[in-house]
Batch of 2 targets.
Target 1
Amino acid sequence: MTAALDVLVVGAGPTGLALAAQLRAHGGDFRIVDRSLDRVRESRALAIQPRTLEALAGFGVTDELVKRGNPAVQLRMHLPGRVVQMALFSGELTDTPYSFLLFLSQAETESVLAECLEAEGVTVERGTELLRLERQGGYVTCRLRRRQDGREETVRARYVVGCDGAHSTVRSEAGIDFLGSAYPQTFLLADLEADGLEPGVAHTFMTDAGMLFFFPLGKPATWRMLAMRPPGSPGAEVTLGLMQEIVDRYADEELRLRDPVWMTDFRLHRRGATHYRSGPFFLAGDAAHIHSPAGAQGMNTGIQDALNLGWKLALVCRGAAPQELLETYEAERAPVGRRVLRFTDRAFTIATSRNPVLRLARVQLAPRIAPLALRASGLRNRVFRTVSELDIHYRRSPVSVGSRAFRNGPRAGDRLPDLPHGLQSRTAGPGCHLLLTGPHHLWPDQRIAPVICGREDLISVHRLGAESPWPDVAQGLVRPDGYLGYVARGLQLEGLHAYLNRWLPS
Ligand SMILES: Cc1cc2nc3c(=O)[nH]c(=O)nc-3n(C[C@H](O)[C@H](O)[C@H](O)COP(=O)(O)OP(=O)(O)OC[C@H]3O[C@@H](n4cnc5c(N)ncnc54)[C@H](O)[C@@H]3O)c2cc1C
């Protein structure tokens, strides 16, 4: 048997690919396997949130994602007799370089992530399925099978991360429950061409009978169509004819569907893992939470799970951080997963309920009130920050320490805002970043060096001086995933030193 690996990543969907990128950037020793022989070619998730674009920028992939996607999508609501148009984010969020929802098919997102890994020399071992896991001593014995020749292999790993989707083998081998239920409705989905729709805009047709959506995809087809299967057609095969029938029923306008690339029907579930970790096993992405696509949160939440976990695993395996750091993964990400389940469940219930009051609210009131309500900048800001995932924070995490150091600025556990613009890109490289505000001369090397000593390869120092948006003299340590771990006001570095000794002992 070969020497033990630090980490086996099971699954190379968006979550596994992002985890591999983060492990690689932080010197992790890992393998990544996926049972399918090829990457996903289907569109599936179709939008990337601003926070995900920020978080992926450190790998140098965000520009490519933006180049391939559509960042300027407006939402057009077609109501009986009239049309209401609304912007989606569009420049409202001033503390991020990505103030837009990027429409891009999941296949393209995975392709960009896979190319990034390839350039880093990481091989995704396709056609390799995880069969079984067994804990033995301090290791996990993993049984793998190659699909092409049926050959089996046993690998020993210190940790196994299940990025293996809703039917996760890792989850069931780890004995972690996945609680929740399926929604009763069935949905129809197609990537196709549609004549008669204005391009580059997301369209919603809201009628008493139900809702119909067209999202601009670009690739592999111009449009993603999504609708609830109407009563009376249960089980009927998904054909272009059925999709056209739905369009004729829900849309006032003359729309012609053609050239479908992919059509399917599916049921949605709302389920969450009872734990994100059990001993050496971790879950991330759909293996940990599945929900309705309302709000485009699924893939985004998975990628951010991965970016939270990757650096922690790599540093613990390298001996640069204590085991307790791994406990903060569930502490930080499980509340985010639960919040996404609640939020998407509410949105889904309002969008699909047959309850007469909710139907009236959906078709008559919401389309009139929503654009007006969203003109109130406070409410609009709150909604956008929630959906964009920019408001996720880890303030209650054991690894978030410190006072309110920056007036009107971030607290320990908050993401580092991009203020001034360019601050995020300066701190996007691997490792931690120590931000020092106040005049440069207050932070001579001889003051910093003893604190950083022995961790020089892990911590980059940035003296912001006049560039700082905050007037105070303060210190902030930015974690590798872009969140502030430690903040303090003033020149005293004892607190920072103690924090580093606790979480990054030299
Ligand atoms: C029809 C459809 C439409 C969707 N639409 C949207 C949307 O509009 N918006 C949105 O946000 N989300 C959407 N989603 C959900 C989105 O696709 C998922 O949230 C996302 O793919 C999760 O990524 P993941 O990497 O966690 O899991 P997955 O993408 O499921 O990847 C899991 C990987 O693990 C591999 N694997 C599984 N078991 C094993 C094993 N035993 N050994 C080795 N490999 C294994 C699989 O082959 C797969 O490649 C949609 C999903 C579907 C099915």
Target 2
Amino acid sequence: MKIISVIGKKDTGKTTLVRKIIEGLRSRGYKVAGLKHAHVYFDFRDKDTGKYRESGAEIVAGLGKETFILLDKELKPEYLIYLISFIQNPDFLVIEGFKTWKFANISTSPEVKNKFTIATVDENFEIEELLDLIEERSYGLLLNLNCGKCGFDTCEEFAIAKIKGEDVECKSQPKDAMLIVDDVPVPLNPFVQKIIASTITGMIKSLKMEKSKINNIKLFIKNLE
Ligand code: SF4
């Protein structure tokens, strides 16, 4: 899953741009997820679920034609991004905000940009050109594994090369297995991912489940002594 974020000052058209990017990527055939970063409470107060929360529920969920889960705490961004990628496996995650994170980003304000900015736009942006840039220069979540398999010593060096348009790829994105310990994703190199995936799959198969019917396995371990 590649990530693109939209950053910029308040009221500079970030949400409009996010919507255009989502629509454009969808029209190019991609599965797309969206994530908004805000320092506010999300407003469910008038709804039944908001009332449950007022009554003290620490987690509130709604299940119908759509599903949502509302927690009364801010998750670590990398944990949430891992969950999104694991639950839906989208091709792209479009984020509004997170201007200090090392995501490829597009800025709607010339004064708000960093070394991961691939473009700065005003209201006259050409969406197809932006989509081309996003396809070419965005990349997945970097966990500072610094394994060097992409040809760079550090993940940040890789990201900067990618932002500049070099034809490079991270070789250690989570593919076969993900590990999250105490809400923090743990970088695993591809070899370790394969070992974990094949070991757990072998154990599940020994429970007499047919491997052909298994698409993925989620294993949660808690209450460790
Ligand atoms: S291959 Fe990926 S994880 Fe390894 S250094 Fe390059 S960017 Fe970082």
